[in-house]
Every structure is written in C-alpha cells, then in structure tokens.
Design brief:
single chain; 5 helices
C-alpha cells in the first residue's frame, strides 16, 4: 500500500477507494496514469520483502523476469466518468464504462504488467515529447 500511495502522490493521482486488496485510482491526464503504473511496478520490484514471502514460488526472483515479491496487475483506460460524492466518506467515487473498461484491462493482464487501451495510447502520443521511458 505504501508504494501505491507514494506513487499516487508523485503522479498527481487520486485514491478513489480500496476494494479488498485492490486500489481504484483516478488521474486527470493519461500520461500521469501510465507513469504512475510504471512507477508502481518498479517500486514493487525494488521493495524489500520478507524472506518468508520470497520463499513462495510466485514471489521468488526467477529466470522468467525481474520480479520478486508481490506483483500487481494494472489496467488503464481514459474517458468520461460519472463522478458522485459519497456522503458517508466525503470522497468522490467514479462510475461508468470507463471504470468498467479499466477493470477489464486489469483482469486481462498478469501480475507485474500494465495493460492500456487504445484511447490511453492516443492520449500519450499527443504528449510523446514529454514521455520518459523507464527500462525495467
């Protein structure tokens, strides 16, 4: 959770809510969302994990990639949302097709990956001169 929240702060994100072990976050700009996603994946790889966790097959450093520790799936979509104030929490919640498509993208990828839609790629291309490439 610390890695997620630190990256949110660094990339102008808004924590909508947590649902079980999942985060729902929102960004005004697609480039911020993708930069956040890559930073989260990099942050998790660089985190110090307890040896008990690293002893698990799915968490151990192996020849299949640079991952060690916990892995998360991240789905990103860009579009219009229905924003509603939750009167109980005082925080805004997001609904609609954009939220549903982001969730489907997340569900379609594997731990350690970031899946983005064509709409996200189009928005990133508009700002490609600002893009920073992260090699992991």
């Amino acid at each position: 959770n610390n890695v997620m929240r630190e990256c949110l702060s660094e990339h102008n994100g808004y924590e909508v809510k947590t649902i079980g072990d999942s985060f729902m976050v929102a960004f005004e700009k697609a480039l911020d969302a993708v930069s956040f996603s890559l930073s989260v994946q990099e942050g998790l790889v660089k985190s110090v994990w307890p040896q008990e966790l690293l002893n698990l097959d799915h968490c151990a450093l192996n020849d299949n990639g640079p991952w060690c520790g916990l892995r998360v799936r991240i789905g990103v979509h860009f579009g219009e949302v229905d924003v509603q104030l939750n009167t109980l929490t005082g925080r805004y919640d997001y609904f609609g097709n954009t939220v549903n498509k982001a969730a489907r993208m997340e569900g379609a990828c594997v731990g350690g990956a970031v899946a983005v839609t064509e709409e996200v790629m189009e928005k990133i291309e508009e700002h490609s001169h600002d893009m920073v490439v992260i090699s992991m």
